[in-house]
Amino acid sequence: MSEARIHNFSISLDGFATGEGLSLDDPFGHAGHRLHEWMVRTRFFHQQTGEEGGGRGVDNAIAAWFEPGIGAEIMGAGKFGPPGWQDDAGWKGWWGPNPPFHTPVFVLTHRPRPSIEMAGGTTFHFLDAAPSEALTAAREAADGGDVRIGGGPTVCRDFLAAGLVDFMHVVQVPMVLGRGVRLWDGLESLEDSYDIEAVSTPSGVTHLVFTAKPR
Amino acid sequence: MSEARIHNFSISLDGFATGEGLSLDDPFGHAGHRLHEWMVRTRFFHQQTGEEGGGRGVDNAIAAWFEPGIGAEIMGAGKFGPPGWQDDAGWKGWWGPNPPFHTPVFVLTHRPRPSIEMAGGTTFHFLDAAPSEALTAAREAADGGDVRIGGGPTVCRDFLAAGLVDFMHVVQVPMVLGRGVRLWDGLESLEDSYDIEAVSTPSGVTHLVFTAKPR
What we know:
The structure is a homodimer.
Chain A: E1 4-12, E2 16-18, H1 37-40, H2 43-48, H3 58-63, E3 70-76, H4 77-80, E4 104-108, E5 116-117, E6 123-127, H5 131-142, E7 146-149, H6 153-161, E8 167-173, E9 181-182, E10 194-200, E11 206-212
Parallel strand pairs in A: 1-7, 1-8, 3-4, 3-7, 4-6
Antiparallel strand pairs in A: 2-9, 5-6, 8-11, 10-11
């Protein structure tokens, strides 16, 4: 069974996954990179960017769940580029010529464009579709693999609200962001559908792991 | 130095410390007692209510920080009684004849009334005052002891925003409450003023401990 999974999804104590004022220079707005520092320090991240080193502790082990078994990703328009990227015909995402996905990636947008094949196995497809339709398309492309719901928060929330997420790994970072886009809005009683584990690590973050109960 | 401390302050994943629809029958509204189940299971809580038993694990050890060194408490009107208690001249709080405070307690309300002396050392005083004024009054009454900021969320938030809190213990419960009163609103960058530790326990909750940095 192909699962829909969310990984390495960082939020502040007040539940914001991204800040205010997103732009080409500030992909996460006033949040900067503070929500992801825990991950940047891991060996997993270093390997993704072709660097030596990086921490090999619990944060690393959990971060590395990101890849195994994934056959496709779905992401929102807000993750693929800064506001207005749809007007730039040459925009190919934030990640350079070899994006860290290495699978088909379905970008949800009301203004689809032709697919873009990148190095390393990533192909960006553009889709104007509801969550369940997008998941069907991504599952087909994943060829038996799982589908990562890659964010941002609005997309994760939509898939959670639709009951489509089998596994979610959220990382709570000890900061109060104050404003931006929240993960939890509209998800009252989410705990009824999931077994939830929490583990804090020496870096100061708390990993929350949601596993869907049998439906 | 007399410190201002917050203890056993339970919130949901989405930051709500109390639900919607507070009433005499539902002191926490639709949240019910779900935010406090972790504490009800501790030996600390059992002792407070005169019962035998209760868990003696890490949750208990942390919960029991509530008492030592405290010489007075400050609480909001919303903690002292259900909406409208100010119209009931006989209302003496939720806690029966022997409340679990055993110190002077300052209730912040725009409609002060004469003090009420209870059994066990608790005296309720009623004060229409700003946080810093209330803290001065409570410190005086605490006679060298610390002052507990007892909640609810609005009162905690006001004291935090005013930079008056030296220590805060928040307990995050793995549920999404969806609506109610949030702790974190208006506290952007709170982490700049505190060292923060997080520890998850086998009960599933995560204890967050904030210790003020030297000012």
